[in-house]
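Why Glutathione S-transferase family protein? Reviewers of the renewal asked for a concrete example.
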Amino acid sequence: MHDVILHHYPTSPFAEKARLMLGFKQLSWRSVQIPPVMPKPDLTALTGGYRRTPVLQIGADVYCDTALMARRLEAEKATPALFPEGLEFVAATLAQWADSVLFLHAVSLVFQPESMALRFAQVPKEFVEVFSKDRAALFSSGSVSRVPLEQAKNHWPVLMARLQQQLSRSGGEFLLGDAPCIADLSVAHCLWFLKATPVTAPLVEDYPEVAAWLGKVLGVGHGAWSELSAEDALKVAREAEPAALPDEAFSDPNGFQVGQRVSIAAVDYGTDPVEGELVFAGVEELILRREDERAGVVHVHFPRIGYRIEAR
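Here is what the prediction returned.
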């Protein structure tokens, strides 16, 4: 058995989602701190170029995108369930809405000048400039752009009213019933992001039902974790072998074949492509085999939804 390793940094909202998933599953894990901006040479040695945060590593298998990480952790430990029986589609769909629509609105609100001035009040000016350029590059290609601030402010009461309505009618304390699931964790990380400064915290606190629910979700914690160096994480990958491929037929509607050289990239933002040998194409997941002099032979896993695959 290999340790579960999370490559992340503390202020990343999607990293908070991953930390909450690990806490929800009551898992022990290793924490590798990565830079919040490029370059990230230790991370990309594992991923082949994927730069988004976080990344999950188990031995020589590397998982990109929290949507796929959730499914991997569900396979690691079935209960408590991130995808409750009978509500799998609803939970995944609500999570996808949160990770896209709600998240992009939260980004716009957090990145307004008054909020950023507080977030970076104690940060050197040079880093603020680097960070701004890095985030501009992150959104410079792909299918989405930032939501204009005025639009985000206009939409926000609608989004929160819908969350309040769902909470009032779910039949339990959480979005889909008596227990939290992937839907709750996906919404929660966006609101956690907003609570970081007094400028944006009222956008959550002004909705008491939502604020109370958020406190319960964040209460699942982060599980038990210990620090690991990036070099040691690379050593783990180098000394391990990728896990056996899923017991599922290879199937690709665009005709890609096992062993074909391809690239896979996100379509929305952070669209840096990862090249490798396609070894698996399943209903939810694509897997590339790649080799790196520091990481050795690794399998890099991507979800189908939100990613494109191209022949090289």
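The CA atoms of residues 124 and 201 lie 24 Å apart. This is the kind of structural detail the renewal will allow us to pursue systematically.
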